[in-house]
Amino acid sequence: MTLQNYYKHSRQIVPGLLVCTAVAAAAYLFERLEHAVFGVGLLEALVFAIVIGIITRTALPGKTSWQPGISFSSKTLLEIAIVLLGASLSLGTLRSAGATLVVCVVAIVVISICASFLVARFCGLSSRLSMLIACGNSICGNSAIVAVAPVIEADSDEVAAALAFTAVLGVASVLILPLVYFYAGMSVTQYGALAGLTVYAVPQVLAAAAPAGLIAVQTGTLIKLLRVLMLGPVIFVLGILQKDRSDCTHAQRGLVPWFIIGFIIVVIARSVGLIPATIIPFLLTLSSVLTVLAMAALGLSVNIRTVASAGGRVILAASASLLLLTAMSYCGVVTVLAR
Questions:
Q1: What's the predicted TM-score (pTM) here?
Q2: Per the structure, how many domains does the chain have?
Q3: What is the mean pLDDT of residues 295-316?
């Protein structure tokens, strides 16, 4: 690309990028209002960004000048965010957990992804949307959906549907799961592990485990980090499988997309100490901001009618998948962890 073409392309990106930035800023504002009003943040800014983006797209359709910036934000910025997300993971977590617990978590995640995918397909969802729901429920909710989407080439409507309905279930699980602790006779450690295995985001794990005390919170956080570590291997395998389905396309890009390789390199760099601990919070904040910008772009690309038409099947598939994960996790926890 010549310098002149690069300058022209950059100018084309600006209008859509500014709109995405405005939507993202509004999303952060709503997140702060949520904290101020309710004292807790059950919905993340990225969920608000999608909703505000959809509303904006519905109210102001046909803005073609926005499209280059929206495409740039939803693809390139998202891929950079995924690479930076690797800074949140350290392989040292595996060593601190012990072999038995690691094997249990890996087995539950793998079985849950496969079973959830089949459940979603049985509900009549597309293979890509089924995989988004399976990975979102089994690994780490929104982050997994966002990371997996470009690997399997899911479109904006599929990503929006998966994020919207798993967000609702994420909130529901935080409110309902403590009832399991109070009525199922679980130990504090067992309940913490159950929260870590079933709840989506780390803040939601903390909220769900808090009623059982500090030990439950610590256990839940450790288990949750083990689940998140599965994200790297899962997106790597999906990248290879996607390559097998479309050899011609992926032959031009290598074995797997560049951002998966970048993600793994950053995880390894963090694990061996090449990334200074002082800059990790900055990298994670930057990753989060870029993700919210990408989700704003996603919302601005969504056809609300398509998402609404799949609503009933998506919520059925996601609910059945979450119940399946909870049942497997409960059996695994009471078997592996002593009271």
A1: 0.72
A2: 1
A3: 75
